[in-house]
Fold:
Amino acid sequence: MPNLFKIKPSVGLLSLPYSLVFIFFFFIPLVLTFVISFWDYNEYSIIPDLILENYRYVFENCFSFENGMCVTFKTYLSTFMFCLITWFFTLIIGFFVAYFLAFYVNSLTWQIALFLLCTIPFWTSNVIRMISWIPLLGRNGLVNDFFLSTGLTSTPQEWLLYSGFSVVLAFVHLYTLFMIVPIFNSMMRIDKSIIEAAYDSGANGFQILWNIIIPLCKPGIVIGSIFVITVVMGDFITIGIMGGQQIPSIGKIIYVEMSYLQLPAAAANAVILLFLTLLIIWIMTKMIDIRKEL
Amino acid sequence: MKKNITRRNMLKTSTAAVGAVAGAGLLKGFPAIHAADAPVIRYLGTAVNMGDAVQKRLFDDTGIKVKFIVKTTDEVTKTIFTQPNSFDIVDSEYFSMPKLVPSGNLLGMDTKRIKEWDNVTSAFTKGEVAGKKIGDQGTAPKKVMYLKGSGSKEFSSEPTQHVTLIPTVYNADTLGIRPDLIKRPISTWAELLNPEFKGKASILNIPSIGIMDAAMVVESMGEYKYPDKGNMTKKEIDLTMKIFTEAKKAGQFRAFWSDFNESVNLMASGEVVIQSMWSPAITAVRTKGIPCVYQPLKEGYRAWAAGFGLPATTKGRQADICYEFINWYLSGWVGAYLNRQGYYSAVIPTAKKYMESYEWDYWMLGKPATADIMSPEGKKLASKGEIRDGGSYEARMGSVECWNATMDENKYMVRKWNEMVAS
Structure:
């Protein structure tokens, strides 16, 4: 009987379609962005050239601290802070949600049902989801109503909305799922007998968590972290809407430059952003070899 | 090992999928459809004032169909530069002309082919309303209206046969306020930075327009008198942004907005009580039953104006269809439709024919409404007895102080604006 699986096309042929997509829609645009970041431009056209002006412009006034920190540094600092805080909370929450799903929920049906529940934030459009925070966190919102009626505060709390707090809240709300999925995946592949063996050898719950589950979840944690960090680094819509447009983000600077057709300047900013994001990912993969762990 | 490769590819694929979703928003161009008997016009613009009713009426009157390519103001400009053949007609703003015309991507429009050209309001052609000169700081339409020839890349200061855009719609913008929460009269732009409204003010985060509102505020505070608000020097930009940066640091602003709906939400929720606003946003707040006033201010209005342009490559039958469309647009029905939204039609006499006399009295003459005033969608905008904010056409357009503008120091201005946002 002929077995279809015995006909093996070469690896090259199998990977061809995806390689082509990758080359045309990822690699070439990326190279173009890099090339254009060295071009010159005027109000209505971009001019092939080889200048460093766009990069110099990004870092203008950055190395003399007379007038405080320059916009670029300030923006990156604020972005890094959001990254760090969001990463921390999504990791903690994501890890324990995944832990609950993997170890406390025994039926597959329930696991799937609860998993779908976690995706609810993605069922509505970005904008609607974020606008819906106003009735909750706004000056006349539910939270402030509660504070005022219970006498916890005497005036409405303004820091609840259009602040760093609300930006982090929205990020955590949105991106915890990106942590849950890969960590849950790692957890499901842990051989239950290892945990039983540890338990039989007298390890307590914390020791099992710390010495067995967390080390075995590292690949999931790193993949989740990469998702969360890359998304937050490039975000400008969430920061814009939840920060009341008063908190800077690199994405917004790039967006504004693009809308004013300052494409080479935007390209330079994009290259720097990409470089920094890749640097963070590189450091993370140094800490753990995902390839080996998978 | 094989397994590893598969998983890694899986990972890559999912990353690419995320990228694809992010990129999907950018893929908006679609090919032309030109059947010989059912002309379709690809209409590039913000289309904020183009409802379904307009399309239907157009088809009934002329048999022309419109396919909208909807983008934001800045993206419209970008599309004219980068994909000049992706549309048949563009609805653009006059302040983009100093950037667009030198590119040669737009056709000089022939005024001889516009039936109502002689009836185009003098606010466009001469910068006058009712025979009186109005403010022309910034990119006033008359400065960028006329071309030296049909294919010219240079503006003419004298009227000629060829123009950059055929004017369609314009308005005078000012601050929007919540009278029920402010509880006192507001009469000057300076109130935007009044500490009384600390944490309850907003300005739009679109640099080219925001800077003009900022300049109106700075001038009315008596801080500085600009020779031309629409074309600031670096020093003037620094000064303006310094005042706004200080205000921002002191917590004057609740939020900035960059999307029309954001301004509506800020105002309707009471998060903000005074802010830069556009006319349809005021209407949107009011139709929710929330009081909102488009407050006339003693320093005058910031005006804007839009019109139709054609790609430089337009000719033959395509040109005929586009001119037919424009002539239909100016023939009155759309003009009335625009006037009822609180904008103004470029050709006023034809619009008048399509408005009831009580509507005309309310919108154009500033008289108290003798019946309830309805929006084109049939929602109630004002009750009997109410007067339009700012009054008559002559009172509003006659008090224009400056126009939306493209500055020579645009690049520097955008940078300084970003600095203010980051401060």
The two ends of chain A are 35 Å apart (CA to CA). The mean pLDDT of chain A is 87. Residues 69-293 of chain A form a domain with the MetI-like fold fold (CATH 1.10.3720.10). Residues 71-104 of chain A form the longest helix (34 residues).
